[in-house]
Specification:
This protein has 441 residues and is of the alpha/beta class. The protein folds into two domains: 161 residues, D-Maltodextrin-Binding Protein, domain 2; 217 residues, D-Maltodextrin-Binding Protein, domain 2 (3-Layer(aba) Sandwich), CATH 3.40.190.10. The chain has 20 helices and ten strands. Strands 1, 2, 3, 4, 5, 6, 7, 8, 9 and 10 form a ten-stranded mixed beta sheet that branches. Strand 1, helix 3 and strand 2 form a beta-alpha-beta unit. The chain is globular. The two termini are 30 Å apart.
Amino acid sequence: MSKKKWLSSMLAIGLITTGILSGCGKDSAENANQGAAENNTATTTNNTETAASADPVKLKLAIWDAKADIDFWTEKAKEYSAQKPNVTIEVEKVPDNSGQYLKVRLAANDMPDLFYLKPAAFQVYKETMLPLDDLQATATNKFATKIDGKVLGLPLVSFSEFVYYHPSIFKALNLEVPKTLPQFLDVMAKLKADGQYTPLSIGGKDDWTFYPFMEFGPHLMSGDEDYMANLAKNKAPFGAGSTFDQVANLLKEISDKKYAGPDALSISFDQSTQQFEAGKAAMIALGQWYYPSYMDKVKSDEDLGAFPLPFRADESQPLTSMTLSDMNVGINKDSKNTEEAKAFLEWMFSKDVYQSYINTMQQSSTIDGVTVDNPFFNKWTQQYPFTPFIYNATDAGFAKVSSAAQYDTHKIAQSIFAGKSIGDLEKELNDKWGKAVDSNQ
């Protein structure tokens, strides 16, 4: 898919219009409607009776700690069971979104029937996943995840990354939205000097909250869509001057100058968002997925703005933002109820159910013919436009090398905030990485 087509899909936000069919006459329409209603009632009754008489089925849907998704699918699972009384859907919360917890389940031969998966984790779990090529939901999904020629996951959302900020704070301190990294650092310095607010809220106690920086930053600064694949061919990619090195030094400056507060490693993700939502922090870097949570707690976006984290040295370089599909749903091929799991997955992506989901999440649709009215992001992406950056997140070589080298960008970021020397860190990384590259050849 071209970037232009992706950009159109991501940023086009329209209204869904409803066609109104007119009958040949009032009496004919009423008779037809009455007959249709009777037929629908009979069909529903027959389907319910058939389902009720079928053998009981219990499916587990594993979702990482994404409260909005857990709440939504917990309620929808009840609707599904009302339609199919013999089927029970248990929504199970897993403690991380990196796939580590599922590795434990995989080793114990206890994988859930359906589960959320990040793009980078597909190479780890591909042998356990059921191909989904024959599903109608696959045919309509614009960003279906294909591994080794087979569709293994269907993403529920696509989104971009942003820095959320409070315009009232910027206005009071006469600050401009930064368009380069030097400007971003300058804004944080001025906020720190003012002393009223934490410049940038980071919940460093939960290591994954560093992902906009250490996980995505080097990709964006490289401008290389195949960054991960090329990284897996380089025996020493973490040296001075590399994009990794530049982002590592950015984090070191944020840490050393306390731009994320006096001790960001003692702050959890929930505490970091609470700090921002209470107006005690001026900025927070998170994805489009954060907006519904903010609205659920604050109830208004009157004092909320968003701009792309400017991973560029000057304004002559392109301004990009990481844009990706996520919340991939896959099926365990060894599930005892694969057919029912497929039926439930089809239902998750059925038009009415999916429209309700994407409206609730306020992210961009992955399904042809389904759009979401999203005035907040429409406003701010028009004010601070960017080019979506899309990268290859499922490279097999990178998955093997990074696993062998125990490469974890989140823990790396934590270690930088804990005071580890970047030179020592890069030397250790290159030693492990070089050995891993050799073993993969």
